[in-house]
Amino acid sequence: MKKRILFLSALFFSATAFAQQVTKVTDPVEWINPLMGTQSKYDLSNGNTYPAIAVPWGMNFWTPQTGKMGDGWQYTYDSYKINGFKQTHQPSPWMNDYGQFAIMPVTGKLKVSQNGRSSWFSHKAEIAKPYYYSVYLADHDVTTEIAPTERSAQFRFTYPKNDSSYIVIDAFDRGSYVKVIPGERKIVGYSSKYARGPLKNFKNYFVIYVDKPITTAQVYSDSTLKDGLELNAKHAMAVIGFKTSKGEKVNMRVASSFISIEQAEISLNREVGTDSFDITKQKAKAVWNKTLSKLAVEGGSVEQVKTFYSCLYRMLFFPNKMYELDAKNQPVHWSAQNGQILPGYKFAGTGFWDTFRALYPFLNLVYPSINKEMQQGLINDYKEGGWLPEWSSPGYADVMVGNNSASVVADAYLKGGRGYDIQTLYQALLHGANNDGPAATGRDGVDYYNSLGYVPYDVKINENAARTLEYAYDDFTIYKLGKALNRPASETEIYRKRSMYYKNLFDPQTGLMRGKNKDGKFQSPFNPFKWGDAFTEGNSWHYTWSVFHDVQGLIDLMGGKQKFSAKLDSVFSLPPVFDDSYYGEVIHEIREMQIAGMGQYAHGNQPIQHMIYLYNYAGEPWKTQLHVRDVINKMYHSAPDGYCGDEDNGQTSAWYVFSAMGFYPVTPATDQYVLGAPLFKKVTLTLENGKTVTINAANNSAANRFVTSLTVNGKPYTNNWLSHKALQQGGVLNFNMSAVPNKARGTKAADVPYSLSNEK
């Protein structure tokens, strides 16, 4: 009897699992959870995200604000009070915000301060979608709804019966302006608050209209009531008020501009016009579905589909548009580099140290037209400021290492990007590669790097080994782009030679990368578990693999494929020990590695995210397949704690989306994607050129995670990589999956992905 019960139980479980398989996604935006990653804090990140109510790459996002003014953790899932609905441009809490202002409906005795106006709320009475947000503010008995456009938004407030119903407009505290014009039911103003600067002539102008007569109008300096209806102060706020009946809906239209109030009006009229709230909501939903539908997944669990589209949602925000469309519908922008109003495209809010790895390659594959605009924006950054940014927030931000704008520029062109001034961008790369610029632009330690072949440990340049390794890869991308542009060999050969400088930091005694002093001796004592110091937000076990362009060269240094593969294995088998003395505290990235249960593998930060795919170069692709599925299963889900570290402008999400498709761009600026194994039974990728790539894995399952065989367009395919050029022609990939690895497939020398050492 017991066996029979167990048998029936197994049948039920199998049937339930089968029933939960998603066969078709027709409304992808409805699978997204914008709260994924919001259950985070300073010392432990589960994403460090906020619910961005916006359209893809929109200039403005909106988010409920639970944090205090100026706090980068502007919305955290464990909070229980909302003090405003903020227009935000924040790329991450560590970078904080710029141009922000907030709107808050209140009732009863008027209190304008953030604490005074705040209200309890519950996630049970909160709806968060990319195109729509709604929440019940219990203390005010008001429901707030938001629907976005690129540079505008509509709000709808449902009030109780009250003689004292208000809307507070908070322009924040770094110098701001407000003016109420009751006869036009209008409020205008600007915020000049920003976290990273200096920024010249910076203002985010806003214009707001309500559809109800304003019977009360006041302005405040901080929380002090002032005479009149106009105020320029350090911290300006405006209040409008009216009587409301039970269930009365008050509609608000709002737009902003970095150029002028008049330009904000242009955007409002163009993007919202006379549309109702519901029409704006429907239009935003349609934009999302059109954008998301480039990727259609089938044959995964409900949770896998939710996670996939929630990650894809995060990938479609940064860098966000900083340009506007003038009265003639031509792009125009305020320049974060020189403070002028100029024609052309502009984007901001991304760090290339994170996003060169997978986010930009994803744009080049799936959304090349938006990346064309981004490349044109980079040209303007260079012309207006003299440098390409490495972190834009919105101007040059002095954080992180590397010169990875080279990868972003080279990959776009080498993957087929055209129609912009690549010659100017190439000159910008040469300039950045040979000079030390302001605010993390160019290369810190460039003279040492060019003369010694590395940035020394003992010359007071922090994170020197990380810089060396990244500069070497960046030089490779310049070499590849220069060759594609038919630059003279005397020029390109310089960068090919420098791209081999990674070898100067390889320590044969430990088999790891190690800081080196100016005299040519390795830094001592050496602790490979020490975070920071010679490395950036990681240790030697993480950064040793940062030879994206020449994995074969690294294999040779380590003594061959067997030793290389064993070294990769060690990352997972070592205990998660660490030395945090460089920071003086356990930074969140360290803690996230420690608690993940995957040894020294630190997926929550970017430097090691490609490492799993390197088994393909050593003739053991089944280990890639094993570990990729482990990371997908353990490190990602669609809940508020759904990431394993900072999401970082789409990069950690891009790892998931690429990996779920079955391949990953280990080496941007080459034509190749390195194979893993698909997560779904079917993925359909619709390219902008109209071609489709269909990825089938009919017998895929939780157990069947290994690739037994692969055919491409009906022909057997043994390579451990896919060609971007071939994918652009469309095609059908059929993966045969099994619970047992095929240790004979992908093991030949001809099967391995590109390495510079193998280039003929």
TrEMBL record:
One Pfam family per UniProt: Glyco_hydro_92N
SUPFAM superfamilies documented for this protein: Six-hairpin glycosidases (SSF48208)
Span of domain Glycosyl hydrolase family: 263-738
InterPro entries membership: 6-hairpin_glycosidase_sf, GH-type_carb-bd, GH92_a_mannosidase_put, GH92_N, Glyco_hydro_92, PNGase
Cofactors demanded by this protein: Ca(2+)
Entry keywords, A to Z: Calcium, Hydrolase, Signal
Start and end residues of each Glycosyl hydrolase family 92 N-terminal domain: 31-257
Signal peptide stretch: 1-19
Molecular function terms from GO: hydrolase activity
Assembly with partners or alone: Monomer.
PANTHER family the record matches: PEPTIDE N-GLYCANASE PNGASE -RELATED, PUTATIVE-RELATED
NCBIfam families recorded: aman2_put
Protein name: Glycoside hydrolase family 92 protein
